[in-house]
Automatic annotation (TrEMBL):
Protein name in UniProt: Actin
PANTHER family, A to Z: SUGAR KINASE, XYLULOSE KINASE
Pfam families: FGGY_C (PF02782), FGGY_N (PF00370)
Lineage top rank: taxon: Bacteria
Entry's family note: Belongs to the FGGY kinase family.
GO BP annotation list: carbohydrate metabolic process
Organism: Paraburkholderia lacunae
InterPro entries in UniProt: ATPase_NBD (IPR043129), Carb_kinase_FGGY (IPR000577), Carb_kinase_FGGY_CS (IPR018483), FGGY_C (IPR018485), FGGY_Carb_Kinase (IPR050406), FGGY_N (IPR018484)
Length: 514
């Protein structure tokens, strides 16, 4: 029997799993950390944190597998997927990191966004890249480094996405997968599947800062260097496969390989995406080549910056009593207690609405100065009302993106697949079904991007065919059917939700500048 390892570098943890050639999990491991947030709306990470976590997770999986009788020589490949790394990691000519990676959550590049809007042909940029202008995108973060860290800029040889940096450390080979390149935004030609010299020139970013080698997510970048064999427990030369952006990899894990299929990944953030063969930046979503059949298919997605992060924020700031009470329970999970209480609150949270814009917002709002809000509060409302409102608010943000996505989608299937930590919540899955109108399915195995990375690894070294990979290795299970009465109520509330941001936008912006 042959085996592969899939690794996913996330915003708050790295996860790895070792599976056999049929997708059965033999071992898994996770390592947690937190991004650095030195200023409001800043979010960054030194790559050493990610590399350490990846090494720990791979080594632990190999060790557990060996205890189960798996020989190192039968582990044929490792694939690393990662969070969207924003700017990427600026490295010098010796490949040493010069500055932390400004990750997807970082919103500092607001001045650079205005510069692009004023000085660049936006229609041309949209046409070339299939993407818009916002501080979410990596190219605006690169411009921030150019403007604020000139010494870093002067010594930067490459900008490397997180998975490309880790792959370089493991193999000594520099390569960037197409999904990571496309997700940077304004410097990648979505039609040509290559860096855009025209766009780079418009932006004033040297083309030499972009790694020359672009690869498919299932391509083997190189073999494992011998210096890692003892630490990881793998043989020298073990194939290291390119991987890609975690949202697309998680979508692939769910078996999404054709137009019309769509998936919501709800973890720290929320990414809802679907497969298409064309893209139009006017609809306000994000596009990149898909991690499977990427020369043909485009993964188009939109999402909320703070989805699970909104839930975590609310729990940590306002639910100390539930956290303490949970410690006395067998599961030790305060979310279960909060969900039990919120389940007794009617749909619509008795008139409370939550805007989940706690770090600005991505699509389709695209406003770094947007802020979160509870609206409709009275003395009647309890923590349970607000907790339900948070779950509903993120679900409204999901529907907001689906409505934008419909405008450009060739088709959308009549079911919604949800992956990520939110899938543990029965209440949240029902709320999503009622708000979106879609039956909700989740993955039985409770693994997402890491399983997708393992599947890419297996394809990359030929353990399974591309045809076999199309169905994925996971099993989908039905979780929630939309309730007709609640759908009517939520459709009315969605109208209020979409009216709130335009109404509050002037106040939000005044608060940012006062």
């Amino acid at each position: 029997m042959d085996y592969v390892i899939g690794v996913d570098i996330g915003t708050q943890s790295t996860k790895a799993l070792l599976v056999d050639q049929h997708g059965a999990i033999v071992a898994q491991h996770a390592s947690s950390y937190q991004p650095d947030t030195p200023k409001p709306r800043w979010a960054e990470q030194w790559p050493a944190v990610w590399l350490k976590a990846v090494v720990e997770c791979i080594a632990a999986c190999v060790r557990k597998a060996q205890e189960a009788g798996v020989a190192a020589k039968s582990i044929k490949a490792v694939c690393v997927s990662s969070l969207y790394g924003g700017s990427g990691i600026p490295v010098d000519s010796d490949m040493r990191p010069l500055y932390p990676c400004l990750i997807w959550m970082d919103r500092r590049a607001t001045d650079q966004v205005e510069w692009v809007r004023t000085n660049v042909d936006l229609e041309r940029l949209h046409t070339i890249t299939g993407n818009g202008v916002d501080s979410y995108y990596g190219y605006t973060k690169m411009l921030w480094l150019r403007d604020h860290e000139p010494d870093v800029w002067a010594h930067t040889r490459y900008f490397l996405p997180p998975n490309a940096y880790v792959t370089y450390r493991l193999t000594g080979e520099v390569a960037v997968d197409h999904s990571s390149a496309g997700n940077i935004g304004g410097i990648y030609d979505i039609a040509k599947r290559d860096w855009s010299d025209e766009a780079l020139d418009m932006l004033g970013i040297p083309a030499t800062m972009m790694p020359e080698r672009l690869v498919e997510s299932s391509d083997v970048v190189g073999g494992l260097l011998s210096q890692w064999t003892e630490q990881l427990g793998l043989e020298a030369g073990t194939a290291i496969v390119a991987g890609g952006v975690d949202a697309a990899v998680a979508t692939f894990a769910a078996g999404v390989t054709r137009a019309g299929q769509h998936v919501a990944m709800i973890g720290t953030s929320m990414c809802w995406g679907y497969i298409n063969q064309s893209v139009d930046a006017r609809y306000g979503l994000i596009s990149m080549p898909h991690v499977f059949n990427g020369q043909r298919d485009i993964y188009i997605f939109g999402g909320a910056i703070t989805a699970g992060a909104s839930v975590t924020w609310y729990r940590e700031q306002f639910c100390h009593a539930e956290t303490e009470a949970a410690r006395a329970t067998p599961h030790g999970d305060p979310h279960r207690l909060l969900e039990e209480a919120a389940s007794g609150i009617p749909a619509g949270a008795d008139g409370v609405l939550f805007l989940p814009y706690l770090m600005g917002e991505r699509s389709p709002v695209w406003d770094a100065a947007a802020s979160g809000a509870f609206v409709g509060l009275s003395l009647f409302h309890t923590r349970a009302h607000l907790y339900r409102a948070v779950l509903e608010g993120v679900s409204f943000a999901l529907k907001h993106n689906i409505e934008a996505g419909r405008k450009g989608a060739q088709s959308l299937d009549d079911k919604l697949i949800v992956v990520g930590g939110a899938a543990h919540s029965d209440l949240w899955m029902q709320i999503i079904a009622d708000i979106t109108g879609y039956p909700v399915y989740t993955i039985e195995q409770e693994v997402e991007a890491a399983m997708g990375a393992a599947l890419l690894a297996a394809v990359g070294v030929g353990l399974i065919s591309r045809e076999e990979a199309q169905g994925g290795w996971v099993t989908l299970i039905g979780r929630a059917q939309p309730d007709a009465a609640r759908m009517v109520l939520y459709e009315q509330r969605f109208g209020v939700y979409t009216d709130l941001y335009p109404a509050l936008k002037p106040v939000m912006h005044r608060l940012q500048t006062s």
